[in-house]
Amino acid sequence: MNRDTYEIGLPIIQKAGVEHKINFIQSSALSALDELLEDDANRESFDFAFVDADKVNYQKYHERLLQLVKVGGIIAYDNTLWFGTVAMPEEFVKESQKRNRLHIIELNKFLANDDRVQISQVPLGDGITICRRL
After folding, report:
1. Element (H or E) spanning 12, and its range?
2. Please, which residues have CB within 8 angstroms of residue 64's CB and are 6 or more apart in sequence?
3. Tens digits of residue pLDDT in 42-98
4. What does the DSSP assignment read for 9-63?
């Protein structure tokens, strides 16, 4: 949503020579994904998607991204360990973390049972779940 954040990373993107492969869209994620899906040429055309957004909509992003990412492509979800709280008894979780914790637990269960993807959860930082579309 913030162009300034993109601008911070732009010199690195340019140095890597991949600026032509990135289309920054300043919009809510659901709206942007819906707009991409309106053009059939976008379906199954993406190699990679990284999701670090509002946790309540992660499953909605997943459904849309499965239509956009090609077979063998990767969808990565950030924050899937949510400060370790997904493995804690609820009484030990800070009140400020409880709402998103429940959304992440639901997402993790959903992805574990989704036969459209193969997953790997990586305990780097706050957790990343990598999904390879089958």
Report:
1. helix 3-15
2. 30, 33, 34, 37
3. 999 999 999 999 999 999 999 999 999 999 999 999 999 999 999 999 999 999 999
4. HHHHHHHTT-GGG-----S-HHHHHHHHHHSGGGTT-EEEEEE-S-GGGHHHHHH
CATH 3.40.50.150 assigned to 27-133: yes
Reading the block at residue 79, the tokens are: 């924050």
> What are the structural domain ranges in the chain?
27-133
Q: Which pairing describes strands 46-51 and 69-78: parallel, antiparallel, or unpaired?
A: parallel
pTM over 0.90: no
Counting beta carbons within 10 angstroms of the beta carbon of residue 88, is it exposed (0 to 12), middle (13 to 18) or buried (19 or more)? middle
For residue 49, list its beta bridge partners: 75
